[in-house]
Design a protein that fits this description.
44% helix; alpha+beta; 12% strand
Length: 533
């Protein structure tokens, strides 16, 4: 009979310990192989601290990581609220497994967030709207209208503009224009910035990331960052953000009110993200809202298209009719009417409101259109500068506060001011009222005068580089070829000499105040012609 071998107690303990380790390793392997690939139990959240710059977040930055909460407190944060909504609509079949409860809750909230962001995806094309990237977009006030068929754009026919892609369509049987404000490259740069700024891969979910980025922070909504930092996000030319160059706290508060949808006085992360996306890519949508909704004098009507709303990365405005160039060959009376509207536009920009001055730096004919009702409107607002009159010097003051009434200011003078303004907005913005009357000169030169010599560009920054000079000369030849001339051509003989002299003084005044006097005389003369025609 075989003798039974008994193991010593220490050996039994060692074997039991090894068996436990083996079981633990197997369990971890099983959890790893069955875990969701995109699950994150720890999420990065904005730490609420001011950032000193807008560069992408680096690993050594002071980041805060928080454990995904299991609380059902509806006021905790956006993700928690979405989680609560998901729980109210769907019940979990297996709630007893404590180990998987947190993962399940997070997965449900993600599904609900994706559903909210893509609730229009079945009826709205991904391009050009990209609603799935909201709130890194212009807004969604018209998305429901596009979803239910009240609004429609013809996406097969589009017009490419240097600053936008335009589509024509209808909104409740009214003709409208949809504008994707920004090139695809600019949108991609913005998306890349958002992902980098939140320490994520380049192809991250922009809609999720933007509310945790610099764009949704308090730091972005400051005068310093509006004037000096925003243009760096997409690395576009600083002059392309004219609306923010002379931003003041009062201006920022005004545009914040335009995005405060719940009217509680404080912007949430989504509202901040929409505001900053609009400013960075192209401020035209914000400016159209500003002209329509800001607290202006009663019955004030600005010469810009009526703003209707937005969906994703497309804004919707009234149909702006035909480009101004189509009217350069119209009847004399029609051209006189449009000339008066152009001069009145500048007058509105200068004097219409006691709080704000509007400076437009580009009076090229392609930036204007005439609506079906005959109203002249500015269709490209990318080069519009808003100046707070309360923080500007009175008309006639130069840098340093020295009054100078005896020296005219013409093209060279205006070009030097613009150069200094872009370089040092903090000190130059207050001088804007002195130079803003040069808008009359630009109107007379580019839109009223039929003298092609007036259309010649001047190189404000001459260079010895032959390639750059060749490029400048080629652009001048192209402008000469396609320039439609001016509105005030084929002038009746009895008015020809007077109008020509007034245009010359308007373009280049010979004495201080000569331009404003010439403009007043020209308006009186054109009104007399209009009434007697």
């Amino acid at each position: 009979m075989a003798r039974r071998v008994r193991l010593a107690a220490p050996i039994k303990l060692a074997l039991c310990f090894m068996f436990c380790i083996l079981c633990y390793v197997c369990m971890k392997i099983f959890q790893f192989t069955n875990a969701p690939q995109n699950l994150e139990s720890n999420r990065r959240v904005y730490d609420g601290q001011s950032r000193s710059d807008i560069l992408p977040v680096l690993p050594q930055d002071n980041l805060v990581f928080v454990h995904e909460p299991e609380s059902n407190d509806a006021n905790s944060n956006k993700v928690d609220q979405l989680k609560i909504n998901m729980v109210q609509e769907f019940t979990e079949d297996n709630e007893d497994e404590d180990e998987s409860e947190e993962d399940s809750d997070y997965s449900d909230s993600k599904k609900n967030l994706d559903h909210r962001k893509n609730r229009y995806s079945s009826s709205i094309p991904v391009y050009p709207f990209e609603v799935q990237k909201c709130p890194a977009c212009f807004g969604d006030s018209l998305c429901q209208s596009f979803s239910n068929g009240d609004a429609h754009l013809n996406l097969t026919i589009k017009r490419f503009d240097p600053n936008s892609i335009d589509y024509h369509g209808y909104y409740r049987h009214t003709r409208v224009v949809g504008k994707r404000l920004g090139s695809n490259d600019e949108f991609q740069k913005l998306d890349n910035f958002i992902c980098a700024n939140t320490s994520q891969d380049i192809n991250c979910d922009v809609g999720d990331a933007v509310v945790m980025s610099y764009l949704a922070s308090d730091t972005a909504l400051t005068v310093h960052h509006f004037r000096n930092e925003l243009w760096k996000v997409t690395q576009i030319a600083r002059s392309d953000l004219s609306a923010t160059i002379c931003a003041t706290k009062r201006f920022i508060d005004t545009i914040k009110s335009l995005y405060n949808h719940d009217k509680e006085g404080i912007l949430n992360e989504e509202e901040r993200s929409q505001l900053m996306t609009s400013l960075i890519l192209n401020p035209e949508g914000i400016l159209l809202k500003f002209f329509m909704e800001a607290d202006f004098a009663e019955n004030t009507v600005w010469p810009v298209p009526f703003y209707i709303g937005e969906c994703g990365r497309v804004i919707i405005t009234e149909h702006t009719g035909r480009p101004l160039r189509h009217f350069f060959g119209d009847s004399w009376s029609q051209r006189v009417n449009l000339s008066l509207q152009l001069l009145d536009m500048v007058n509105k920009f200068l004097k219409e409101d006691s709080d704000w001055l509007v400076l437009l730096g580009d009076f090229h004919h392609s930036n204007f259109a005439v609506t079906d009702s005959g109203r002249l409107v500015l269709t490209n607002l990318k080069d519009v500068l808003i100046v707070d009159k309360y923080e500007s010097r009175p008309y006639g003051l130069q840098v340093g506060g020295e009054i100078n009434y005896d020296r005219p200011c013409n093209e060279e003078c205006f070009g030097a001011f613009i150069h200094k303004l872009l370089k040092d907005p903090t000190h130059q913005c207050q001088e804007t009222p002195f130079y803003a009357q040069l808008m009359y000169s630009l109107v007379c030169r580019w839109l009223l005068s039929a003298n092609q010599d007036h259309k010649k560009m001047t190189n404000d920054n001459p260079t010895e580089d032959p390639d750059e000079q060749q490029s400048f000369d080629a652009q001048q030849r192209l402008d000469d070829r396609f320039s439609p001339g001016g509105l005030l051509h084929s002038i009746p003989e009895e008015h020809e000499e007077s109008i020509h002299e007034l245009i010359e003084e308007c373009i280049s005044e010979t004495s201080f105040g000569g331009r404003l006097s010439a403009v007043e005389e020209m308006i009186d003369l054109l009104q007399e012609i209009q009434y007697t025609a």
